[in-house]
Amino acid sequence: MEKGKNKQSRRKFISKTVPAALGAIGGVGLVAQSCNTTEEEEKVSLLTPDGQLVEVNKSSMQPVSPAEARKGIPGKQFVMVIDLSRCKNARKCVTKCQKMHDLPPEDEWIKVFLMQDSSDTAPYWFPKPCFHCNQPPCVKVCPVGATYKRTDGLVLVDNERCIGCKFCMTACPYSSRVFQWKEPKETNFADREYSPETSTPHKVGTVGKCDFCPDMIRQGKLPDCVSGCPNGVIFFGNKKEDIVSNGTESFRFSELIHDRAGYHFMAELGTEPNVYYLPPVDRLFDYEKGFNNLTDEQVEFYKKSIVKKH
Amino acid sequence: MNLNPKSAKMLDYFASQMVKVSKPGIFWLAIATVFIIGGFYALIVQIVEGHIVTGMRDNVVWGIFIANFIFFIGISYAGALISGILHLLRVEWRTPIIRIAEIITVISTLIGPAYILLCMGRLDRLHHLALFGRIQSPIIWDVMAITTYLIGSIIFLYLASIRDLAALRDYPFKSKWRNKIYTILAIGFNGTPKQNRYLDRSLDIMSAIIIPLAILVHSVLAWIFGMTLRPGWHSTIFAPYFVVAAVFSGTGVLIIALWIFRKYYKLESYITKIHFNYLGIILMILGALYAYFTFSEYLTSWYGSETWEMEVLYKLFNPNEYWWWFFFAAIIGVVLPIIVILIPKFRNINSITAVSVIAVLALWVKRYLIIIPTLEAPLLPLQDMRPEYIHYTPTIIEWLLTFAGVALFCVLFFLFSKFMPILPVVKADEGNYAELRKTVLKRIVKEKMKETEIKESEKMKDL
Amino acid sequence: MKNLCKHILILGLIILFGMGNVFAQKAKKKTTRVGVAYFKSDTKIETLVATLRVKEKRYIPLNDAVLTFYSVSDTLKVLLAKIRTDENGQAIFALANNSKIAKDSTGLMAFVVEYEGNSLLKDAKRKITVKQAGLEVSFFQKDTIKFIEIEAKTADPNTQAAPINNLKIKLYIKGTFSLLNFANEKTDKNGIVRVEFPIDMPGDTLGVLTIVAKIEEDDVYGTVESRGEINWGIPVPLVKEKQRGLGDTDAPLWMVYTLITLLSAVWFHYLYVIFMIIKIKLAKL
Ligand code: SF4
Ligand code: SF4
Asked: Is 3.40.50.20 the CATH classification of the domain at A68-287?
């Protein structure tokens, strides 16, 4: 018996980088009962995904500086698992992402493709964010290091450094990048301080893409596409902990990938994505369900562009 | 060491041409100016409104700006490779060609990179290249290579012009500013044996170094495309392919320029059929090489028939998409020059020039076909409802800027021909400038005397 | 007579319609629903989380509405707090040993959360009863096998703690975003659950794992949570920052050297030629 002997060693680095998000609960009652806590520092109470009520200084929710955003959250390696058997093109991930990142309806950082591998195989819906590749071609070619790879696996873009050469857009084999062709519209994020972690406010003449919502991650929250999906298609987690979650279910990442034959999309390109797919077997929905919330024109278009004729 | 009276005569001829602009000259100059102004307007629109005014969108992120960029850097090869090689080989007939070739190099190396700048979303952050440059990026290689190349070409052009500059310095122009500039630029060159030795050595060094440099510049340019995982770009032969295509188009432009200046300055006795024939043969050989590369490139990707490669090929071979352009760029633009130059019956100054024009146009189209179809065929299906995101069409802004570039090229060329004789006048072995000065002065004195004689005789008559 | 009939008819219709309108208005009032749950966190902070939802097509959270919390016993109904709901429709009340809260002899607490409603929304209320419980997480090793032990006890400060048996305990490993369930067991008669430690889970750099034990939405005890940390996980080293590579800030060395060699070779010749030009200048007559 060595009961409690090993109880030492708090994770110091976490308490540094995830400020107050998971510790420091003292005085919750105060906050919860009275909403006006203007005295002292402004506080915000948050409910963590595991049901813990925590209180966070408002300032710690401010986006981190571009320099800080280059470092990455220590001890993490973020992965996403997308279960193709559950997707029916509900497009909530797309709209949630657009809301979160202040994007116009036509700019999609996560896209849902209708795929068919060959004319005899079954079509399926294919949500595709940026893969946050471990060997990212986009990062290799950037002349100024405006797009960069972090230790936690994220590939981010610093829109204050980007010169808009668009080389990364040609280098990314997965069409993940979106250019800001014109001055962004006035929005409620306009007065926000820019951070590569929030990717807002957008800057004209620079490149944007899915960022895995690092600002949410820092608060211990799942990215918006994950929590937004009504069918629990997208799982997200820290590969180092081997846990992924879609907000309601949690799995061991390795088991999920092993049992459900998870794969990399176009693994042959050698980009080593951090996004895994579970093949569309035993589907929850027929793929044609995905046409429900589309206009006729869109359905027509999808059907036309689905198989490439040669 | 006696002065060649022919040189003196030539200098005299050019000097008189340099100070005046003929009527057709003014006409063409005006047209070019209109185009340049149009380009300037387009530039302002693009800066104010953002890149939304171009036809480029998220899939086709590079459009004709990049095609122009490759095109101009390509024709800059004329000077670098041709004059470099001809100089090193001491080819007899090179003299009338070399100056024009070198000017093409410098001007197109100046204009080409401007198109890259036009393609950049944030011109105001150009200094970031110096602040945060990462040498892993082919763009940085390109920036370094092109700057080095430009400086090298300028040095080369300057060295090859020193003798003429010295001659011009000693030529009595009416406007004194010319002589002042020439005096500064000629840095006291007087054709002494020592100076000649230094100059020749420098010329040899520069022409030797400019050749590998030019090859490197175009390879780096090709690698911008070759390094990406895109069908139609990710090819190992892209660097030599680009180099050959570049020399091909460079030679074409050189022939066209020779033809124009021959006409405009009436240089029929200096630029003869021999020059066109020799250059035509070079053009033909390069055309064959280029055709070989094209064939090899498309044959391999067609034979392998990888899905994505086929996607691009399908676009190129589809009559509703790019087939006719491809037909022109890869077949007409190569086969026609080869046939015309190969068969002696067809071979004359005008026909060689005409096929050069075709070759140059074909090469521009080829650059377009390298860039756009590949970008229109991304690896993932193109499921976008916006037609302009699927198919690229250059906008009027892009065309205006393209034509402005061509016009600027012509105008700069023209201006240069007003500043320097378009052909090298003074040969290396005849450096007696004092002598030259004497001959010219003698001629002028003689003319003056004649004039006064005539006047006086007229006066006498009147009386 | 006819006229009178007509008038009565009209009057009747008006009244009918008016009544109808009133009914209609009443019928238009939307249904609301209050849900209450009791939480006790690892840090022993007890909260009542009340959620207010309004029925549209389905129930959606209603924010910025006031919920009233009462403590009730057989005879008394004491006002505890009025709290506004947040954007998730939640109002959170912390018990914090509030002396106003009444308990019966068995330690049972009863609360009522009420929503008053307004002209558009119906009122709603919900009652909840809870007994305070506590969980204790500890670890021990027997031979080579590592165990987690959970002890469930009542936790009324006024009475002696007693073990709770036959209580469902869920065991989780804490992740960054979620809890990973690895065991569900019922307590034995001593209120104890013993589970083998999941030794194949990766921990942090030191192998530290956080085990979360939970009583979840129990009818009597609500949700009670307790945590324990131990370094029995597999240590995962930190990623080393920055090597040289194509995708990193610094280029591979061969690339640096090649570039320097090429550039200096060319520029050396340029400088030499410029030197020559200077010599030409100096050699003028
Ligand atoms: S998916 Fe594209 S943009 Fe994302 S990391 Fe990979 S290469 Fe870069
Ligand atoms: S567009 Fe911006 S992020 Fe992309 S390669 Fe150029 S500078 Fe880097």
From this structure: no
